[in-house]
Amino acid sequence: MTHESRPKRAYVETYGCQMNISDGELMEGILEGGGYQIVRTPEEADVVLVNTCAIREHAEKRVLGRVSQLNGLKRDRPDLVIGVTGCMAQRMGETLLEGAPYVDLVMGPDGYRGLPETLARLERGRGEGASGLAAHQGIGIVERPRGRGPQLAVLQLDMDENYQGLEQRRAAGPSAWVPIQRGCDHRCTYCIVPYVRGGEKNRGAAEILAEVRGLAERGVTEVTLLGQTVNSYVWEDVTFPSLLRQVARVDGIRRVRYTSPHPNDVTEALVEVMAEEPAVCEHLHLPAQAGNDRTLRRMLRRYTVDSLLGKIDLVRSAMPDIALSTDIIVAFPGETDEEFRDTLDFMRTARFHEAYTYKYSAREGTPATRLPPEDFVDADEAQARLAELIDVARGIQSEINEGEVGRVEEVLVEGTGRDEGQVRGRTRRNKVVVFDGDPGRIGAYTRTRLDRTTGATFAGTEVEVEIGEPAPV
Ligand code: 5AD
Ligand code: SF4
Protein backbone atom coordinates (compact mmCIF):
# COMPACT_ATOMS: atom_id res chain seq x y z
CA MET A 1 0.00 0.00 0.00
CA THR A 2 1.52 3.34 -1.01
CA HIS A 3 0.16 6.82 -0.40
CA GLU A 4 1.39 8.77 -3.37
CA SER A 5 -1.20 11.48 -2.93
CA ARG A 6 0.11 12.61 0.43
CA PRO A 7 3.52 13.26 1.94
CA LYS A 8 4.98 10.51 4.07
CA ARG A 9 4.40 10.97 7.76
CA ALA A 10 7.02 10.62 10.47
CA TYR A 11 6.76 10.44 14.23
CA VAL A 12 9.76 10.94 16.53
CA GLU A 13 9.62 9.84 20.18
CA THR A 14 12.55 11.00 22.27
CA TYR A 15 13.99 9.76 25.57
CA GLY A 16 16.86 11.05 27.67
CA CYS A 17 18.70 14.30 28.20
CA GLN A 18 18.14 17.77 26.78
CA MET A 19 20.76 17.12 24.12
CA ASN A 20 18.76 14.15 22.92
CA ILE A 21 15.50 16.10 22.96
CA SER A 22 17.25 18.71 20.90
CA ASP A 23 18.45 15.95 18.52
CA GLY A 24 14.82 14.84 18.21
CA GLU A 25 13.95 18.35 17.05
CA LEU A 26 16.88 18.24 14.64
CA MET A 27 15.65 14.95 13.16
CA GLU A 28 12.20 16.45 12.72
CA GLY A 29 13.73 19.44 10.94
CA ILE A 30 15.75 17.17 8.63
CA LEU A 31 12.72 14.99 7.90
CA GLU A 32 10.59 18.02 7.11
CA GLY A 33 13.33 19.26 4.79
CA GLY A 34 13.16 15.85 3.12
CA GLY A 35 9.44 16.20 2.42
CA TYR A 36 8.03 14.38 5.45
CA GLN A 37 5.11 15.62 7.46
CA ILE A 38 5.70 15.39 11.21
CA VAL A 39 2.82 13.83 13.16
CA ARG A 40 2.16 13.57 16.87
CA THR A 41 1.22 9.91 17.27
CA PRO A 42 2.78 6.67 16.03
CA GLU A 43 -0.63 5.55 14.77
CA GLU A 44 -0.66 8.28 12.11
CA ALA A 45 2.91 7.66 10.95
CA ASP A 46 4.58 5.80 8.08
CA VAL A 47 7.90 6.07 9.89
CA VAL A 48 8.30 5.81 13.66
CA LEU A 49 11.67 6.78 15.15
CA VAL A 50 12.47 6.09 18.77
CA ASN A 51 15.32 8.36 19.79
CA THR A 52 17.05 6.66 22.68
CA CYS A 53 19.35 7.19 25.65
CA ALA A 54 22.12 4.85 26.87
CA ILE A 55 23.28 6.57 30.03
CA ARG A 56 21.92 3.91 32.41
CA GLU A 57 20.65 0.39 31.93
CA HIS A 58 17.23 1.31 33.27
CA ALA A 59 16.76 3.89 30.48
CA GLU A 60 17.58 1.27 27.85
CA LYS A 61 15.25 -1.37 29.25
CA ARG A 62 12.33 1.03 29.21
CA VAL A 63 12.97 1.95 25.60
CA LEU A 64 13.35 -1.66 24.45
CA GLY A 65 9.94 -2.37 25.96
CA ARG A 66 8.49 0.63 24.13
CA VAL A 67 10.00 -0.44 20.78
CA SER A 68 8.53 -3.91 21.10
CA GLN A 69 5.16 -2.35 21.94
CA LEU A 70 5.35 -0.17 18.80
CA ASN A 71 5.97 -3.33 16.80
CA GLY A 72 2.33 -4.16 17.55
CA LEU A 73 1.42 -1.47 15.00
CA LYS A 74 3.02 -3.57 12.26
CA ARG A 75 0.30 -6.19 12.60
CA ASP A 76 -2.15 -3.99 10.70
CA ARG A 77 0.47 -2.02 8.80
CA PRO A 78 3.36 -4.23 7.70
CA ASP A 79 4.79 -1.29 5.68
CA LEU A 80 5.43 0.74 8.80
CA VAL A 81 9.11 1.62 9.27
CA ILE A 82 10.43 1.40 12.83
CA GLY A 83 13.80 3.03 13.50
CA VAL A 84 15.84 3.26 16.68
CA THR A 85 18.15 6.28 16.81
CA GLY A 86 20.41 7.95 19.36
CA CYS A 87 22.82 6.69 21.97
CA MET A 88 21.34 3.23 22.57
CA ALA A 89 21.20 2.61 18.82
CA GLN A 90 24.87 3.53 18.58
CA ARG A 91 25.80 1.37 21.57
CA MET A 92 23.88 -1.76 20.62
CA GLY A 93 24.11 -1.39 16.86
CA GLU A 94 23.55 -4.55 14.89
CA THR A 95 22.94 -6.57 18.06
CA LEU A 96 19.74 -4.61 18.37
CA LEU A 97 18.72 -5.52 14.81
CA GLU A 98 19.37 -9.19 15.58
CA GLY A 99 17.50 -9.12 18.88
CA ALA A 100 14.57 -7.13 17.49
CA PRO A 101 14.08 -8.32 13.90
CA TYR A 102 11.10 -6.01 13.45
CA VAL A 103 13.35 -2.96 13.77
CA ASP A 104 14.15 -1.68 10.28
CA LEU A 105 16.84 0.85 11.07
CA VAL A 106 19.36 1.68 13.75
CA MET A 107 21.05 5.05 13.45
CA GLY A 108 23.60 6.65 15.77
CA PRO A 109 23.80 10.35 16.66
CA ASP A 110 26.02 11.27 13.69
CA GLY A 111 23.73 9.83 11.01
CA TYR A 112 20.78 12.21 11.09
CA ARG A 113 21.83 14.44 8.20
CA GLY A 114 21.24 11.53 5.81
CA LEU A 115 17.96 10.39 7.36
CA PRO A 116 15.67 11.00 4.33
CA GLU A 117 18.12 9.26 1.98
CA THR A 118 18.48 6.33 4.36
CA LEU A 119 14.72 5.95 4.61
CA ALA A 120 14.45 6.10 0.81
CA ARG A 121 17.12 3.39 0.56
CA LEU A 122 15.20 1.26 3.00
CA GLU A 123 12.10 1.59 0.86
CA ARG A 124 14.00 0.81 -2.33
CA GLY A 125 15.49 -2.24 -0.62
CA ARG A 126 11.99 -3.46 0.15
CA GLY A 127 11.11 -3.16 -3.52
CA GLU A 128 14.24 -4.98 -4.63
CA GLY A 129 13.91 -7.87 -2.22
CA ALA A 130 17.17 -9.33 -1.01
CA SER A 131 19.22 -8.48 -4.10
CA GLY A 132 21.43 -5.44 -4.44
CA LEU A 133 22.27 -5.53 -0.77
CA ALA A 134 25.43 -4.41 0.91
CA ALA A 135 26.03 -2.01 -1.96
CA HIS A 136 26.28 0.93 0.36
CA GLN A 137 28.95 -0.26 2.72
CA GLY A 138 31.86 2.11 2.95
CA ILE A 139 29.60 5.12 3.40
CA GLY A 140 28.66 3.96 6.85
CA ILE A 141 25.52 2.02 6.06
CA VAL A 142 25.41 -1.71 6.70
CA GLU A 143 22.53 -3.74 5.29
CA ARG A 144 21.28 -6.99 6.70
CA PRO A 145 19.11 -9.04 4.35
CA ARG A 146 15.73 -10.00 5.72
CA GLY A 147 12.45 -11.33 4.34
CA ARG A 148 10.59 -8.03 4.21
CA GLY A 149 13.40 -5.90 2.81
CA PRO A 150 16.69 -5.18 4.52
CA GLN A 151 17.54 -3.82 7.94
CA LEU A 152 19.94 -0.86 7.89
CA ALA A 153 22.58 0.17 10.41
CA VAL A 154 24.08 3.68 10.23
CA LEU A 155 26.66 3.74 12.96
CA GLN A 156 29.67 5.68 11.79
CA LEU A 157 30.83 8.40 14.16
CA ASP A 158 32.00 11.41 12.21
CA MET A 159 34.51 13.84 13.74
CA ASP A 160 33.29 16.55 11.36
CA GLU A 161 29.56 16.20 11.88
CA ASN A 162 28.44 19.19 13.93
CA TYR A 163 25.17 19.53 11.99
CA GLN A 164 26.31 22.84 10.55
CA GLY A 165 23.67 24.35 8.30
CA LEU A 166 20.73 22.36 9.71
CA GLU A 167 18.06 23.70 12.00
CA GLN A 168 15.70 21.94 14.34
CA ARG A 169 11.95 21.91 14.11
CA ARG A 170 11.07 23.49 17.41
CA ALA A 171 7.81 23.36 19.28
CA ALA A 172 6.19 26.80 19.49
CA GLY A 173 6.90 28.49 22.79
CA PRO A 174 9.01 31.13 24.52
CA SER A 175 12.01 28.84 25.17
CA ALA A 176 14.44 27.09 22.84
CA TRP A 177 17.43 24.82 23.21
CA VAL A 178 20.42 25.65 21.07
CA PRO A 179 23.04 22.91 20.71
CA ILE A 180 26.50 24.47 20.42
CA GLN A 181 28.57 21.32 20.88
CA ARG A 182 28.28 17.58 20.32
CA GLY A 183 30.28 14.75 21.87
CA CYS A 184 32.78 14.85 24.72
CA ASP A 185 36.57 14.80 25.07
CA HIS A 186 36.53 13.61 28.68
CA ARG A 187 36.62 9.96 29.64
CA CYS A 188 34.87 9.78 32.99
CA THR A 189 35.23 6.10 33.74
CA TYR A 190 31.50 5.39 34.30
CA CYS A 191 30.26 7.23 31.24
CA ILE A 192 29.16 5.86 27.87
CA VAL A 193 28.73 9.25 26.19
CA PRO A 194 32.18 9.58 24.57
CA TYR A 195 31.75 6.13 23.02
CA VAL A 196 28.31 6.76 21.56
CA ARG A 197 28.66 10.43 20.68
CA GLY A 198 32.36 10.61 19.88
CA GLY A 199 34.74 13.45 20.65
CA GLU A 200 33.89 17.09 21.18
CA LYS A 201 32.69 18.92 18.08
CA ASN A 202 31.74 22.58 18.31
CA ARG A 203 29.49 24.58 16.01
CA GLY A 204 30.58 27.81 14.37
CA ALA A 205 29.96 30.86 16.55
CA ALA A 206 28.49 32.94 13.71
CA GLU A 207 25.96 30.24 12.93
CA ILE A 208 24.96 29.92 16.60
CA LEU A 209 24.45 33.67 16.88
CA ALA A 210 22.46 33.80 13.66
CA GLU A 211 20.24 31.03 14.98
CA VAL A 212 19.66 32.84 18.27
CA ARG A 213 18.80 36.06 16.39
CA GLY A 214 16.36 34.13 14.23
CA LEU A 215 14.75 32.61 17.32
CA ALA A 216 14.43 36.03 18.94
CA GLU A 217 12.75 37.37 15.80
CA ARG A 218 10.22 34.54 16.05
CA GLY A 219 9.41 35.55 19.62
CA VAL A 220 11.67 33.22 21.61
CA THR A 221 12.91 35.04 24.69
CA GLU A 222 14.75 32.27 26.57
CA VAL A 223 17.56 30.14 25.17
CA THR A 224 19.54 27.31 26.74
CA LEU A 225 22.91 26.58 25.16
CA LEU A 226 23.56 22.84 25.10
CA GLY A 227 26.67 20.72 25.10
CA GLN A 228 28.11 17.73 26.94
CA THR A 229 30.77 19.96 28.48
CA VAL A 230 29.24 23.13 27.16
CA ASN A 231 31.68 25.55 28.76
CA SER A 232 34.70 23.99 27.06
CA TYR A 233 33.23 25.33 23.79
CA VAL A 234 35.72 27.12 21.56
CA TRP A 235 35.50 28.16 17.92
CA GLU A 236 38.45 29.99 16.39
CA ASP A 237 38.97 32.89 18.80
CA VAL A 238 35.52 32.64 20.40
CA THR A 239 35.60 31.02 23.83
CA PHE A 240 32.52 30.02 25.80
CA PRO A 241 32.45 33.16 27.97
CA SER A 242 32.55 35.39 24.90
CA LEU A 243 29.88 33.35 23.11
CA LEU A 244 27.69 33.53 26.21
CA ARG A 245 28.10 37.31 26.32
CA GLN A 246 27.16 37.68 22.67
CA VAL A 247 24.12 35.44 23.02
CA ALA A 248 23.03 37.38 26.11
CA ARG A 249 23.16 40.61 24.10
CA VAL A 250 20.95 39.47 21.24
CA ASP A 251 17.95 41.80 21.00
CA GLY A 252 14.83 40.22 22.45
CA ILE A 253 16.61 37.51 24.48
CA ARG A 254 15.72 37.97 28.14
CA ARG A 255 17.03 34.75 29.62
CA VAL A 256 20.10 32.67 28.79
CA ARG A 257 21.00 29.37 30.43
CA TYR A 258 23.54 26.68 29.58
CA THR A 259 23.96 23.01 30.43
CA SER A 260 25.94 20.99 31.35
CA PRO A 261 29.22 22.63 32.25
CA HIS A 262 32.33 20.77 33.43
CA PRO A 263 33.51 22.24 36.75
CA ASN A 264 37.07 22.58 35.45
CA ASP A 265 35.94 25.03 32.80
CA VAL A 266 34.13 27.25 35.28
CA THR A 267 36.64 30.08 35.11
CA GLU A 268 36.85 33.64 36.40
CA ALA A 269 36.15 34.86 32.88
CA LEU A 270 32.95 32.80 32.71
CA VAL A 271 31.76 33.87 36.13
CA GLU A 272 32.43 37.49 35.22
CA VAL A 273 30.19 37.24 32.14
CA MET A 274 27.47 35.50 34.16
CA ALA A 275 27.55 38.23 36.79
CA GLU A 276 27.72 41.10 34.29
CA GLU A 277 25.17 40.12 31.68
CA PRO A 278 21.63 40.77 32.90
CA ALA A 279 20.15 38.12 30.59
CA VAL A 280 22.27 35.25 32.00
CA CYS A 281 20.13 33.54 34.63
CA GLU A 282 21.18 33.08 38.25
CA HIS A 283 21.18 29.32 37.96
CA LEU A 284 23.98 26.87 37.30
CA HIS A 285 23.87 23.10 37.00
CA LEU A 286 27.27 21.94 38.19
CA PRO A 287 27.65 18.14 38.08
CA ALA A 288 29.80 17.08 41.04
CA GLN A 289 29.28 13.27 40.71
CA ALA A 290 30.86 12.57 44.13
CA GLY A 291 32.22 14.33 47.19
CA ASN A 292 35.25 12.17 47.94
CA ASP A 293 38.68 12.61 46.37
CA ARG A 294 39.50 8.95 45.85
CA THR A 295 36.17 8.35 44.12
CA LEU A 296 36.55 11.46 41.99
CA ARG A 297 40.03 10.32 40.99
CA ARG A 298 38.81 6.87 40.04
CA MET A 299 35.92 8.44 38.14
CA LEU A 300 38.55 10.49 36.27
CA ARG A 301 36.69 13.69 36.98
CA ARG A 302 39.99 15.63 37.09
CA TYR A 303 39.13 17.77 40.15
CA THR A 304 39.18 17.40 43.91
CA VAL A 305 36.52 18.20 46.49
CA ASP A 306 38.51 21.28 47.51
CA SER A 307 38.85 22.59 43.99
CA LEU A 308 35.15 22.00 43.39
CA LEU A 309 34.24 23.88 46.55
CA GLY A 310 36.60 26.59 45.31
CA LYS A 311 34.60 26.85 42.06
CA ILE A 312 31.37 27.03 44.02
CA ASP A 313 32.82 29.87 46.13
CA LEU A 314 33.94 31.67 43.00
CA VAL A 315 30.45 31.49 41.54
CA ARG A 316 28.68 32.42 44.76
CA SER A 317 30.94 35.34 45.56
CA ALA A 318 30.14 36.89 42.17
CA MET A 319 26.42 35.96 42.30
CA PRO A 320 25.40 35.51 45.94
CA ASP A 321 21.83 34.66 44.99
CA ILE A 322 22.63 32.00 42.40
CA ALA A 323 20.82 28.64 42.63
CA LEU A 324 23.13 25.68 42.06
CA SER A 325 22.07 22.18 41.09
CA THR A 326 24.13 19.03 40.64
CA ASP A 327 24.35 15.37 39.61
CA ILE A 328 25.60 12.72 42.05
CA ILE A 329 26.31 9.03 41.43
CA VAL A 330 26.31 6.66 44.42
CA ALA A 331 27.87 3.22 44.66
CA PHE A 332 30.55 3.74 42.04
CA PRO A 333 32.60 0.49 42.13
CA GLY A 334 34.94 0.55 45.11
CA GLU A 335 33.10 3.37 46.93
CA THR A 336 33.28 2.56 50.62
CA ASP A 337 30.64 3.52 53.12
CA GLU A 338 33.04 6.11 54.55
CA GLU A 339 33.61 7.59 51.12
CA PHE A 340 29.88 7.74 50.54
CA ARG A 341 29.56 9.64 53.86
CA ASP A 342 32.10 12.15 52.48
CA THR A 343 29.67 12.76 49.62
CA LEU A 344 26.89 13.42 52.14
CA ASP A 345 29.16 15.86 54.00
CA PHE A 346 30.03 17.54 50.73
CA MET A 347 26.31 17.96 49.99
CA ARG A 348 25.80 19.58 53.39
CA THR A 349 28.66 21.98 52.69
CA ALA A 350 27.79 22.81 49.09
CA ARG A 351 24.04 23.13 49.73
CA PHE A 352 22.70 22.61 46.22
CA HIS A 353 19.20 23.85 45.49
CA GLU A 354 18.52 20.67 43.58
CA ALA A 355 20.30 17.34 43.11
CA TYR A 356 19.76 14.68 40.45
CA THR A 357 20.82 11.45 42.07
CA TYR A 358 21.74 8.15 40.44
CA LYS A 359 22.87 4.68 41.35
CA TYR A 360 25.95 3.67 39.38
CA SER A 361 24.94 1.62 36.35
CA ALA A 362 27.61 -0.47 34.62
CA ARG A 363 27.87 0.42 30.91
CA GLU A 364 29.65 -2.15 28.82
CA GLY A 365 32.81 -0.83 27.25
CA THR A 366 33.44 1.87 29.85
CA PRO A 367 36.62 1.65 31.99
CA ALA A 368 34.78 1.28 35.32
CA THR A 369 33.33 -2.06 34.23
CA ARG A 370 36.89 -3.45 34.28
CA LEU A 371 37.39 -2.72 37.99
CA PRO A 372 37.77 -5.84 40.16
CA PRO A 373 34.45 -7.70 40.48
CA GLU A 374 34.61 -7.58 44.29
CA ASP A 375 34.54 -3.76 44.07
CA PHE A 376 31.01 -3.69 42.71
CA VAL A 377 28.64 -2.45 45.39
CA ASP A 378 25.83 -4.79 46.35
CA ALA A 379 22.43 -3.73 44.94
CA ASP A 380 20.75 -3.35 48.34
CA GLU A 381 23.63 -1.30 49.65
CA ALA A 382 23.51 0.90 46.53
CA GLN A 383 19.77 1.40 47.01
CA ALA A 384 20.27 2.32 50.67
CA ARG A 385 22.94 4.88 49.76
CA LEU A 386 20.70 6.39 47.11
CA ALA A 387 17.81 6.67 49.57
CA GLU A 388 20.04 8.34 52.15
CA LEU A 389 21.46 10.77 49.61
CA ILE A 390 17.99 11.68 48.37
CA ASP A 391 16.93 12.31 51.95
CA VAL A 392 19.83 14.65 52.60
CA ALA A 393 19.43 16.45 49.25
CA ARG A 394 15.68 16.92 49.76
CA GLY A 395 16.18 18.17 53.29
CA ILE A 396 18.60 20.83 52.06
CA GLN A 397 16.31 21.76 49.19
CA SER A 398 13.33 22.19 51.53
CA GLU A 399 15.31 24.33 53.94
CA ILE A 400 16.51 26.58 51.13
CA ASN A 401 13.07 26.86 49.57
CA GLU A 402 11.32 27.51 52.91
CA GLY A 403 13.72 30.41 53.32
CA GLU A 404 12.59 31.80 49.97
CA VAL A 405 8.88 31.95 50.76
CA GLY A 406 7.74 35.57 50.59
CA ARG A 407 10.12 36.56 47.80
CA VAL A 408 8.75 38.21 44.67
CA GLU A 409 10.40 36.85 41.53
CA GLU A 410 10.19 37.26 37.80
CA VAL A 411 8.42 34.24 36.31
CA LEU A 412 8.23 33.16 32.69
CA VAL A 413 4.83 31.52 32.17
CA GLU A 414 5.54 28.17 30.49
CA GLY A 415 2.34 26.18 30.61
CA THR A 416 -0.83 25.34 32.46
CA GLY A 417 -0.88 24.01 36.01
CA ARG A 418 -2.54 20.81 37.13
CA ASP A 419 -5.72 22.56 38.29
CA GLU A 420 -8.03 24.55 36.09
CA GLY A 421 -7.24 28.27 36.03
CA GLN A 422 -3.65 27.70 37.05
CA VAL A 423 -0.46 28.37 35.15
CA ARG A 424 3.06 27.10 35.71
CA GLY A 425 6.23 29.06 35.25
CA ARG A 426 9.86 29.22 36.15
CA THR A 427 11.92 31.83 37.95
CA ARG A 428 15.33 32.94 36.69
CA ARG A 429 16.78 30.67 39.38
CA ASN A 430 14.99 27.74 37.74
CA LYS A 431 12.34 27.23 40.40
CA VAL A 432 8.91 26.06 39.33
CA VAL A 433 5.98 28.19 40.52
CA VAL A 434 2.28 27.45 40.08
CA PHE A 435 -0.26 30.27 40.41
CA ASP A 436 -3.73 31.39 39.31
CA GLY A 437 -3.50 32.88 35.86
CA ASP A 438 -4.77 32.98 32.33
CA PRO A 439 -3.38 30.17 30.13
CA GLY A 440 -3.50 32.67 27.25
CA ARG A 441 -0.46 34.28 28.81
CA ILE A 442 1.96 31.46 28.16
CA GLY A 443 5.17 33.13 27.05
CA ALA A 444 4.63 36.24 29.16
CA TYR A 445 6.90 37.42 31.97
CA THR A 446 5.28 38.37 35.21
CA ARG A 447 6.13 38.90 38.87
CA THR A 448 4.96 36.35 41.36
CA ARG A 449 5.14 36.17 45.13
CA LEU A 450 6.25 32.76 46.41
CA ASP A 451 3.61 31.88 49.02
CA ARG A 452 4.25 28.24 49.89
CA THR A 453 6.63 25.45 48.99
CA THR A 454 6.15 21.72 48.71
CA GLY A 455 9.89 21.46 49.26
CA ALA A 456 10.73 21.25 45.59
CA THR A 457 8.26 23.66 43.93
CA PHE A 458 6.28 26.73 44.89
CA ALA A 459 2.70 27.96 44.89
CA GLY A 460 2.50 31.70 44.35
CA THR A 461 0.39 34.74 43.57
CA GLU A 462 0.90 37.04 40.65
CA VAL A 463 1.60 40.51 41.99
CA GLU A 464 2.03 42.60 38.92
CA VAL A 465 1.41 41.96 35.25
CA GLU A 466 4.50 43.08 33.48
CA ILE A 467 4.82 45.14 30.37
CA GLY A 468 5.38 43.08 27.28
CA GLU A 469 3.08 40.88 25.32
CA PRO A 470 3.07 37.08 25.32
CA ALA A 471 5.46 35.75 22.75
CA PRO A 472 3.76 35.61 19.31
CA VAL A 473 4.46 31.92 18.80
N1 5AD B 1 25.60 5.31 36.02
C1 5AD B 1 24.88 6.19 36.74
N2 5AD B 1 24.78 7.49 36.43
C2 5AD B 1 25.44 7.93 35.34
N3 5AD B 1 25.54 9.16 34.80
C3 5AD B 1 26.32 9.06 33.71
N4 5AD B 1 26.74 7.80 33.54
C4 5AD B 1 26.21 7.06 34.55
C5 5AD B 1 26.29 5.70 34.94
N5 5AD B 1 27.01 4.83 34.24
C6 5AD B 1 24.90 10.35 35.36
C7 5AD B 1 25.93 11.44 35.67
C8 5AD B 1 25.67 12.45 34.62
C9 5AD B 1 24.19 12.30 34.41
C10 5AD B 1 23.67 12.87 33.13
O1 5AD B 1 24.00 10.89 34.44
O2 5AD B 1 25.63 11.96 36.94
O3 5AD B 1 26.02 13.78 35.00
FE1 SF4 C 1 30.31 11.68 30.39
FE2 SF4 C 1 32.28 12.86 31.79
FE3 SF4 C 1 31.84 13.56 29.20
FE4 SF4 C 1 30.05 14.26 31.10
S1 SF4 C 1 32.23 14.95 31.00
S2 SF4 C 1 29.59 13.36 29.07
S3 SF4 C 1 30.14 12.52 32.50
S4 SF4 C 1 32.53 11.57 29.94
Helicity level: 25-40%
CATH class descriptor name of the largest domain: Alpha Beta
Strands side by side in the biggest sheet: 2-1-3-4-5-7-6
The fourth-level CATH homologous superfamily of the largest domain is Methylthiotransferase, N-terminal domain
User: In terms of per-residue confidence, which ranges show pLDDT below 50 for 5 or more consecutive residues?
Assistant: none
CATH topology name of the largest domain, in short, is Rossmann fold
Radius of gyration: 23 Å
User: Which molecules are bound in this entry?
Assistant: 5'-deoxyadenosine, iron/sulfur cluster
Oligomer kind: single chain
Count of alpha and pi helical runs:
12
Give the rounded overall mean pLDDT: 93
Beta-strand content bin: 15-25%
DSSP summary, beta strand count: 22
CATH architecture of the largest domain: 3-Layer(aba) Sandwich
Compute the number of structural domains: 4
Shape: globular
